[in-house]
Protein: Nitrate reductase
Organism: Anaerobacillus isosaccharinicus
Amino acid sequence: MELTRRSLLKAAAISSAMIAAGCTKKEEVAIPEPKAPEKDPVQVETQSIEPDAWKTSVCRYCGTGCGVLVGVKDNKVIAVKGDPDNRSSRGLNCIKGYYLGKILFGKDRLTKPLIREDNSKKGTMDGFREASWDEALDLVASKIKEYRAEGPNKIAFWGSGQQTVHEGYTSVKLWKAGLESNCIDPNARLCMASAVVGFMTTFNSDEPMGCYDDLDLADTFVTWGANMAEMHPVLYSRLTARKLSGTNVKHYDLTTYHTRTSETADSVMVFRPQTDLAIANCIANYLIQTDSYDKEFVADHCQFFGGTENLGHTWDDNYDASEIGQKVMGHAEISFEEYKERVSEYTFEYVSELSGVPAAALEELAKEFADPNRKVMSTWTMGVNQHTRGTWMNNLIYSVHLLAGKISQPGCGPFSLTGQPSACGTAREVGVFSHRLPADLVVNNPEHRRFSELIWNLPEGYLDSIETPGFHTIKMFRELGNGNVKFLWSMSNNWGQTLPNTKRYHNHEGIAPNGQGIMDGFIVVSEVYPTRSTEMANVVFPAAMWVEREGMFGNAERRNAIFEKCQEPPGEAKWDIWAMVQVAKRALDGKKIGDHDAFDVIFGKYGPDIWDYAKNDLIDEHEVCVRLWNEYRMFTAPHLHENPAVQELGSKLKTRAKELAPYDEYLKQHGIRWPVREVNGKWLETKWRYANGKQEDGYDEIGVELMGDGKKKNKDLDFYKSWADHKARIYFRPFEEAAEVPDAEYPLWLCTGRVLEHWHSGSMTRRVPELHRAVPEALCEIHPDDAAAIGIKDHDYIFVESRRGRTKVKATTIGRGKPPKGLVYVPFFAEETMINDATHDVHCPLSKEPDYKKCAVKVYKA
Ligand SMILES: Nc1nc2c(c(=O)[nH]1)N[C@H]1C(S)=C(S)[C@@H](COP(=O)(O)OP(=O)(O)OC[C@H]3O[C@@H](n4cnc5c(=O)[nH]c(N)nc54)[C@H](O)[C@@H]3O)O[C@H]1N2
Ligand SMILES: Nc1nc2c(c(=O)[nH]1)N[C@H]1C(S)=C(S)[C@@H](COP(=O)(O)OP(=O)(O)OC[C@H]3O[C@@H](n4cnc5c(=O)[nH]c(N)nc54)[C@H](O)[C@@H]3O)O[C@H]1N2
Ligand code: SF4
Ligand SMILES: [Mo]
């Protein structure tokens, strides 16, 4: 039987009903058939048909940002291969990249706008009818107007690190300037928020100082909670290549279970979840106790800070942690003596007891930081960020590197890995956050608002209406669930599956404790395939995906790169920018900004001029990209603006620290790393920020001179974006227990994450037959002793149940990951295995990023 999506859902509903009724019938979780087309449209590696052209592109999955060349014949994508001219990946792709072309051709692409007729069928793809774009756009715009009239936080936009730079910029401009609402946040809140707040609190400037070149030069690698072998595979192959080519290159893997990454590490330190906080502190303590920290570096470039209050966690209805966050932000400068005193508690013996890592292994790692002759590169991803103390963990990794003076030098430095293809370029750089404006600017700073008003041609004081940050992601969805947010538009994400504690919104087992607002609210989902989120929608906009439009992503090493348009989208699917501008035209109708129509200021003739008034439609797509770029670029290159007020304020705000090049350069160069500067007619990129040296060699010399407020130290380095004295902050942050710890009732830790072959909710990769066949279903990895304790064999079904919800999943003791006793691991890619029904939405009070990596569960045979 070919399972359609509908029959699949029905099967799931029946089995749920039986579970609810206490039935014990064993029913397998239905694994969907891949919905790939019968005839394979995309060749992989071997080309029997020669394409008409190879277009320049980048992969749309992970933050590595690999270059991809796309073979096009008769305006159709027929082949993909690695791009040797992309300096981030040098011709390599991973398995997802090699099969990338196939995501365009799934059988069930959304090709027509859908309008829900039957609200009682929300939660399924039933109850929709097809509609014309005009009808769907009119409806959405009228709902925005209706609910915006009730207040700015009634209408929400949930964006993504998978939106292009231009799409993110358009959403920010529409929401913040057009609709005067800060109720806009991205899925990057679930991913990079702790990294952002970590950067801002330590350096007052977001994003890494180093780059991928460090992977070729380091002597020691430390992975602090990153399974790079599966999640950043091309970067991992560069790390392993360095291990093979260098002498005495070491890799230390800190992790809560043995992963693919652990397999090639020299030292694998499996620690008890959350004790990473203590581990970082014991390294700092060692550097101080042995007097092996870099005294000159610390004296010149650092100051000590403490924000030490043990403030408890942010549970349940106390989910808006802003008050707690404020308190924690009220940290203070402390003396070196105080710092020394506070870390002194973290001896190897104490931390070994806490974490389960042998003291000798901890000491060996600490010695790497203490050795002045070793270049150490740290990398981390979600193990560190998805953490109730995610900001603290980021601070602590920087503390260790700052104490050791190992930062911002070739082969040496802390490198926060980014997950999504444009979490940096889009979410962070253009500011798709409730508190942000483009280029590190924030809404609650009057000078930042003035500067944005100048660039956006808004009257002085106009943006004062968005002075207060809007709802962050967790709050946004909780308020939607509670019925307080009444309109939601989501784009390039699949919140119905990927949010934590999804039981608040779904009724997979017939329970929807807070889901009423989801039923009653008006939800618009821009998507390319039916998903757990489109099921919740009132209107579905069919979107053009990947190379069906032109776009730009910004990757983890600050490289912005363009992908060219290669084919038309199917049916009536449209570019997300087209849909946003069309909605803007309707929703802003009748609104004035100063003397002008609001639409003309935001997108039209008094703004970026991307509207063709004669056609009553967008101008040419490439030209839209160029003009939006030119406007956005002024945030980072104010000296190019004709208005002296922009130049003056921009230089005061140091926005040039992110300077970007003219748009077409990015295609010509197959990507460029910011800050970008024109030197002798060439646009040069920066490899090591804050590092003095020639721009031609990739150092930030010009940046340091420009930003130094005349304070250039003429030393190796200057944290020029940081506070008045140009010093970075070494924080003391204490160990604090996880928010939920296993106990007698829920005796195991649950960790969730990913697998190499699938992308997040699997909506794209499960439609690629090769990837689906490789990993057709989610498996729960469990230690053999824990499996024996509940009397199961491999591939038996078990329930993984937390205080919030449960999911049924096959167990394995011989998976890729090998959890220690007491911990189970479940990936979240499979929509029939909703592990997020079990996770919790407890989050870091500073970054508001939830902890998907640890909660307490019990498991039992299904
Ligand atoms: N194949 C594939 N690649 C991807 C993605 C994908 O969906 N599929 N998604 C991309 C995105 S958006 C992201 S964010 C990244 C995620 O990349 P990763 O973070 O590398 O992957 P995850 O599977 O989310 O997390 C697994 C890691 O979390 C660590 N961990 C668990 N608990 C703790 C803890 O308490 N402390 C610490 N320090 N570590 C802990 C584990 O040790 C393990 O290394 O992957 C990106 N790359
Ligand atoms: N349990 C658990 N849950 C997690 C995590 C975890 O570690 N554990 N990690 C969290 C993290 S780090 C992240 S980043 C999130 C990711 O979570 P999401 O971003 O919510 O999940 P995706 O599956 O990446 O959703 C992207 C969607 O965009 C659609 N799409 C593709 N191209 C386009 C386009 O051009 N336009 C539009 N409109 N749509 C498009 C795809 O079909 C896909 O469904 O998941 C979070 N959830
Ligand atoms: S998924 Fe990541 S590593 Fe793989 S090809 Fe794409 S960008 Fe490169
Ligand atoms: Mo992510």
